[in-house]
Amino acid sequence: MAHHSGTLKLGAFLSGHGSHNASWRLPEVDEDASRSFAPYARVAQKLEEGLFDAIFLNDSVAVPELDPKSLARSAQGMRWDPLTLLPALAVVTRRIGLISTANTTYNEPYTLARRLASLDHLSEGRAGWNLVTSLGGGENFNRDDHLLHAKRYERAEEFFDVITGLWDSWEDDAFVQDKANGIWSNPDKMHLLNHKGAHFSVQGPLNSARPVQGYPVIAQAGSSNDGRELAARTAELIFTAAQTIEEAEAFDADVTARLARYGRKRADVRILPGVSVYVGDSAPDARARYEALQDLLDPISTLKGISHFVNIGIDLWTLDLDEPIVLPSVIPVTNTHKSRQQLVIDLIRREQPTVRQLLRKMVAGGHRILFGSAQDIADDFEHWFRAGAADGFNIMFPDLHGSVDRFVEQVIPELQRRGLFRTDYEGPTLRDNLGLARPRNRFSAARIDHSPAIRR
Amino acid sequence: MAHHSGTLKLGAFLSGHGSHNASWRLPEVDEDASRSFAPYARVAQKLEEGLFDAIFLNDSVAVPELDPKSLARSAQGMRWDPLTLLPALAVVTRRIGLISTANTTYNEPYTLARRLASLDHLSEGRAGWNLVTSLGGGENFNRDDHLLHAKRYERAEEFFDVITGLWDSWEDDAFVQDKANGIWSNPDKMHLLNHKGAHFSVQGPLNSARPVQGYPVIAQAGSSNDGRELAARTAELIFTAAQTIEEAEAFDADVTARLARYGRKRADVRILPGVSVYVGDSAPDARARYEALQDLLDPISTLKGISHFVNIGIDLWTLDLDEPIVLPSVIPVTNTHKSRQQLVIDLIRREQPTVRQLLRKMVAGGHRILFGSAQDIADDFEHWFRAGAADGFNIMFPDLHGSVDRFVEQVIPELQRRGLFRTDYEGPTLRDNLGLARPRNRFSAARIDHSPAIRR
Asked: Which residues span the domain enclosing A348?
């Protein structure tokens, strides 16, 4: 892609007490963040003060690790339903985007279409949907075996067609709402979907007006071949786990090539690598904050969590922490998190870490970890951004308190000083701020859409 | 039941622009109430000012009437997802209960358990669930034919067992959250559900702490035999459509008898008949408000809506408005709204209305319609309440604006003056205000629960 001269986009990845597994143990962090609204309201407002494009909530439909040691030591079993938390956050914020993860494997498109449309109306155009196929959890949804990877993607493709078709049920000007004459709607602007496919039969129409943004912004993080293909067809915001500029550039080139197959351009997509950021008053201060969190980590339950998340055929928690990791000759084929498995294998081959070193690398879910002063962070971001390796970043905050405050108070002003980041929101909707076009309604595509949200 | 000497409970049934089909045409009513948050926020705060026990949102998973005349004239096609609107309302209120309708036919128990648990945590114990089996909409959920009535109830029974079992996944004190020692939870207090039934296989545990209230308050409105039986086993709040004190007493006696089969007492349940209320400065003023709304009604689309809702084998909209209604010798068997069909048949037999008279009776979904001054309304409520025919009322506000204001400003003070209504909320949770016990966790039932919410 062309080297960037504009400004970068920033997402805030939020989960539990923070992206670091031990963050709940920090004195300043509210241990009830997954059942008490106040900590999330505070963080959302702080991120909006920092002009972040969006809050991005991840999700899961199961408690991942059930052995007693993990239950005792790892902060799990308590999680917000993201599409319940985000409507509440919409009320205490005005401009920041609200992106929810939701899976296509255990949901029904009609139900999810309603939830996301209502969130987009409630927030006046700030909703986003992170489409995932796999979150585990089949055991909670009448399935002994998790749907096969390929089948999940097939279902996801069809789910996307149905949900966007439902959002197009009503044209933008279908609701006449003429009180004097009692005319509520123009029936010619209502369109039945009448979808009949392998996975879904959905007649429509949706019982909701079209979302403010046409569709909520579509995000995705799948990096497998199927995942990239789905992203190329449907995603507008792509989260990656690129560790190096070279990896990021290769990913970018690959996605750009795939986009063309669907008549889309690179400019229709924003690519945001995830990065876990530790900001300190100086580089040593940042490192000390990072080390302090690492020291709070329980190795056994964390290693079990990693092994659950990415199966590389080794029971990591049975090894000595200072033992080097030797990959088995045959690595098991995985049905979940395919691309994340590859990332870990690559990392082990490249860096030959001990168990302890891998553990520390993996606390941000395998994302890049960055620590330093605000200048150091801004240098890194500027380097990636100017090189064209990223349109911005999805920041994985280690904790939900101080790490957010330090980023907003120290890194954001430094990015603004360099002209790398906005000094005010561009507009009221998430699409406005990301510079993404408002999608046409498929049923009125022949007409010219004069919607003010369209930029290109 | 014993005659009442306490105070009555009040629910506020909210839907669209109000329960009257023409309410959107009133000048003061915001025509965007189903996609703009402000009108609902305003009404919720007004109802809390009036110390209402709860807001109660209904739901539907389809646009009910698709013929062009109905689409053009009847305010449909736009509806909040109630479990998206209620989290937002939780933020702008402090004490009022938040009850959402959600169906057991097209939802998965794990998903709904999460949504309701998150709402209960978010609102600090104010969530309620109105369990319904039937809202139509099979055509949007891979089903050409709506599930048979009996099958729906069978699924609902199992759904209830699963969802409450999931809410019991974690005992109330399972989360130790000891930061210093890194102990997150006591694994002995996590319980797998391992449910395998005809409709659901769900392992658990839920990825949420137990709701603040143990379970959200369970509400139901089914009045058929199956509906009453399910309510007797599971409901804590029962909405009825009783038209007369005699009907209400018969319903009460029937439910009381059924409760005994499940080891429950009448005091475990609150029965609230629905009533549509028009408050005026005087009786003629109230009647004038009622007539003004009736005059805004479009007869054809409203009659189609009624026929869709309750099929009595007559195409009402083809008849002259002043023609008396003659029931056919054979009335079709219905698969939805069985009890509502019977209510209409009874009404026609009792009152022998013209089409126009039935139309006017049915604008509140067949509920009792009451108009008068604040004194008149309070007289009626007092009469029913003292007679033991109701524990309170579910008020169907004709519109979402003036009718709420007049009730809160005029009727509530009159009820308080008579000692019939609270002058402050009894406690922070919906259970506290309804005087309902906090349910025990089935897995820790052997231990004594000292929860402060328990009253009896």
From this structure: 298-362
